[in-house]
Design goal:
CATH superfamily of the largest domain: Histidine kinase-like ATPase, C-terminal domain
CATH class of the largest domain: Alpha Beta
Structural class: alpha+beta
Distance between the termini: 58 Å
Strand order of the largest sheet: 1-3-2-6-5-4
CATH architecture of the largest domain: 2-Layer Sandwich
CATH topology of the largest domain: Heat Shock Protein 90
Order of helices and strands: HEEEEEEHHHEHEEHEEHHEE
Number of helices: 8
Bound molecules: adenosine-5'-triphosphate, magnesium ion
Amino acid sequence: MTLTASSVVALTLLAGGFALVLLLQQSLIASLDTVASERAQVVASRAVGGNLGSTVTNTGSQNTLVQVVDSSNRVVAATSDIDGEGPMLVAPAERVTRVFNVDRLPAGDGPFRVIALPVRLPTGSGWIYVATSTNQVVSAVVNLASLFGIGLPLVLIVVVWALWRAVGQVIRPVDAIRRRASSIGGEDLSQRVPVPDTSDEIASLAVTMNDMLERLETASLRQRQFVGDASHELRSPLAALQVQVEVAIAHPEDPGSALVLANVEGQVARMAALIDDLLFLARGAEGAPRGPTRLVDLDDLVLSELRRLRELGGPAVELDGIRAARVVGSERDLARLLRNLGDNARHHAHSQVSIRLTTRENWAKIYVTDDGAGIQPQDRDRVFERFTRLDDARSRTARGGGAGVGLSIVRQIVRDHQGTITIRDRSDDHAGSVFLVCLPLAPEGGPSHP
Ligand SMILES: Nc1ncnc2c1ncn2[C@@H]1O[C@H](COP(=O)(O)OP(=O)(O)OP(=O)(O)O)[C@@H](O)[C@H]1O
Ligand SMILES: [Mg+2]
């Protein structure tokens, strides 16, 4: 940055200095020419009147030399310092006033500007030559140029130094941030980059980076916890399986072995379902796209969930009202959502589960109600976290409770479909809980079935 800015400043100064010197030279020369041509006019008016001796009186600057020549370019009058010398110019061909640059003349210090003014003498046509030394112009220009030659590098040094300092001050915090950022590894995300004590873009960059690190740290912690919890969930059933299998191997002749095998099969099926759930959650954490989306008839899904729950037996399952409702989404995921809510309600219900599907404005509303113990208000957010189980271990085993991932899957699916889920008390003052899922209805004339 310093180099670029300094180069620009240097070029600008150089161009400016050059232009200034050129301008000075031109304006000095122009004023010399004006004075010379005035002098020529005065001499001319005298010559025309015939009152010009052989010597032209020297007025003003000694550096001005005057010659009057006749039609054959012979000197008929001149200032004393060039008296007796030949003409300073070859008479120009055209009879118009012109200016010439002449390096050397018999008198005075050159170089010279010579004005040739055509004049009509009493003896015929002639010329008046007025030469002015540009000596002083040259020295003025040289003086100015050398002043610039010394001054400009000095100015440039000051500019470079100031730029270097200013840029350094800006860069220093960036460098500190860079150094810290390069030392933050994948393992330890607890470090933060230093936030400079300014309120500029760099400070807000540091704050943004720290926010990002915070999010990364949280995500990484969640990821680790998920892996830990998942391993833990899988380890206990696997250990139980191992014991049963070992016993069966040790006593192959035992008629109970067949029973053990059936038991093992059930547990393997549950573990497979759990692994399936875990994979679903892991994919959600990666933000990976879900299955294909299309128009889904929620009422069909509700009816088949109802049928499934009734076939399982247990508490009575009733339909509390149903409306045609279409949403855009994944049929498989929405069925899974209903199944998880249905299973929970069935597990916790005392004697009755009811399901209701209504529509209101642009929303489909699914109510899954049971008459169980209900969920305390303070637990209503927590139950959607992964691996959260409210029932104590004993009652869980007694009821064959799950891993605590069902509701987090439900929440994931609801989010995927831009919907909401809430837990409420029953409106009829009975014990139990109501899960209310709101999903946006498919727009009229929206995408049709593929
Ligand atoms: N209808 C309900 N009534 C009372 N408590 C409930 C109800 N639904 C869920 N819960 C509580 O919320 C917890 C979390 O439910 P979630 O469905 O996530 O896990 P789970 O049913 O225990 O296991 P999984 O669904 O993974 O087999 C349950 O363990 C239970 O304590
Ligand atoms: Mg569940």
